[in-house]
Structure of Methanogenesis marker 16 metalloprotein:
Amino acid sequence: MEREVGHILEKINRKDATVLTSQELCDIIDSGDSVGFEDVDVVTAATRAIMSGTYAVLSFPVGTGEKFTRASAVTINGVDAHVGPCPNERLGILDLMVFGTAHSHDRENYGGGHLFRDIVEGNPVDVDVVTDEGKKYSDTVSIEDMPYAQLFATRHAFKNYSAFVNFSPSPVSTIFHATTFAPDATEATLSGCGQINPVKNDPQLHGIGVGSRILLNGAEGFILGSGTRSSPEKPNLIATADMHSMVADYMGGFATSAGPECIVSWAVAVPVVDDSVFDAIRQTDSEIPLPVMDADRRMKVAMTSYADAWKDVDIEVVFNPGKCRGCDVCEPMEKCPMESIYFNGDKVVLNRHTCFNCGLCSTLCSDVFRADLGSLKFDYEGNKMDVPIVVRQSDRKRALIMAEKLRDSIKEGTFILNGMVERISP
């Protein structure tokens, strides 16, 4: 079966369209109720995760007291900013590109993702400039001083990603764990929001494509095409949006044992235009393959499903500050990849605005922080494995909230769903 996007848009304008979140639809499927093609017009899907393929393009004047010819090197809060492509000779204006995976020279576990959130929050950032002549200048700016601040995705929103286990006999430092990965397959980490991931709901990209309007970190943006290393098996997308309209709570930095990484959020409205989309939106976590990768060799060693990660688990960490025993060293505070745990006097505090619900704290102190993260169940070299998940690098809790907000915005007419300009070949 097929229908035109224009037909769906007309139903939305008449307030006659059925718009559901992907979670709502999967809940209906899990309950045993039947859903037909004509029963749903649009599904809203979302993900919040570590997305390395991220960069920002920033352009703003810098106060130096004199006009320099060109900038040769720039850092913002100690994070390298690549100068160009426009030379801006003697204009006192910087055109810069900052990578989300860049690491600060001055602050441990601070990188491009942290910087992007600081900019969106309106915090002042320190800019240090070295000119072609070797002169050095410093200034402090905020997003109000940046006429142009655009975030770009080069490789985002994979259909679904992977879980990781370290099968080697030695610990491994990796971007796929917040701390050093324990050896001998004793713990697991994972990425991907499973059944609510945007491209999982349209893997052949028949409903969304070039020009489709999305929410990137809460700001309206557009899909530009397929991302780097995209393939029919693991399609991903490129997109862009203006940082001035972004929501800080949807972004940020995440410390790993190999350095800081960048968090980005997507919310996408998928029009149900044909059977390929309809079949995809009905797939629940139990039907979605989850590759198990060896974090040391970076190769697939087994398969399971996203039900191991997201079915009958806690998507939010439960916080019980009254059970804190005042240990000499608070491991959750020391190792939190978001620095969301701190002490106000002798009282432990969890900052929900920055918390990623990764769950690491619950594996370190189950009295104060509680969350069932699930475990990976798979066969490996003739053995039945059951490896507990200790870190999640996707925040399904916040993704669900974004999908619900997008659903409501479509129904209220504040988010205008549009048809694609051109189809993307996955």
